[in-house]
Specification:
Layout (H helix, E strand, L loop, with lengths): L1 H24 L9 H19 L9 H21 L7 H20 L5 H15 L1 H23 L8 H7 L3 H22 L5
Helix pairs in contact: 2-3, 2-4, 2-8, 3-5, 3-7
């Protein structure tokens, strides 16, 4: 009976941990959050999507490094959207990125991809151009709908920048410094959480 109760408690704790992690990763949806925290949450979310949706057996022990390289490529898609003025954010941006990753995963399952990196890079580089009309229409719809809803909700208060805007600002020194500080702060929190209590 004791083993059953412990297993049930462990499952409940694992579910709570998963829910908290998912909520933290989706914090990039919230325009009222700190921009640096939103970018870190977006990076974490993109990393997790890549790690879970693609087959990484080919990468061996370098899986984490390859996932990070692919995440950096995905950030290029977001910057391309910003350059064209298409400020998709939240669920629309998440759906586009997961569609792109799922398309690559489907080709992996078919066995079409012989060399993953060039295929992934080419897919990401061509994504905005190949889907330009759909993306433009979606951005226009999102802008009109979001503008109407936002005007009603906030009565003229300024909104936080979208993730494409934040990704474009990432190269600026001020935001880069804030990101570095936020990463150090998160690392300290994780290190403190990993230590066992003294008593």
């Amino acid at each position: 009976m004791q083993a059953y109760l412990e297993e049930r408690d462990n499952r409940a704790a694992a579910e709570r941990h998963k829910d908290n992690r998912d909520d933290a990763e989706l914090a990039w949806f919230n325009g009222k959050e700190d921009p640096a925290a939103r970018l870190l949450a977006f990076d974490s979310w993109a990393r997790r999507q890549l790690a879970t949706r693609l087959d990484w057996t080919w990468a061996g022990t370098a899986k984490d490094k390859r996932v990070e390289q692919c995440r950096l490529q995905l950030n290029g898609v977001v910057r391309h959207l910003f350059k064209r003025g298409w400020l998709l954010d939240g669920k629309r941006l998440a759906a586009r990125i997961t569609d792109l990753i799922n398309a690559v995963a489907a080709q992996q399952e078919k066995g079409v991809i012989r060399d993953f990196w060039p295929y992934f890079k080419a897919s990401v580089d061509r994504y905005v151009g190949l889907n330009a009309e759909e993306l433009r229409q979606e951005a226009m719809e999102a802008g009109v709908h979001a503008g109407q809803m936002f005007a009603q909700m906030t009565k003229g208060l300024p909104a936080g920048p979208s993730v494409p805007e934040l990704e474009a600002q990432r190269t600026e020194e001020t935001l880069r410094a804030k990101l570095a500080g936020k990463r150090r702060q998160n690392a300290r929190k994780q290190a403190n959480a990993g230590q066992l209590p003294l008593l």
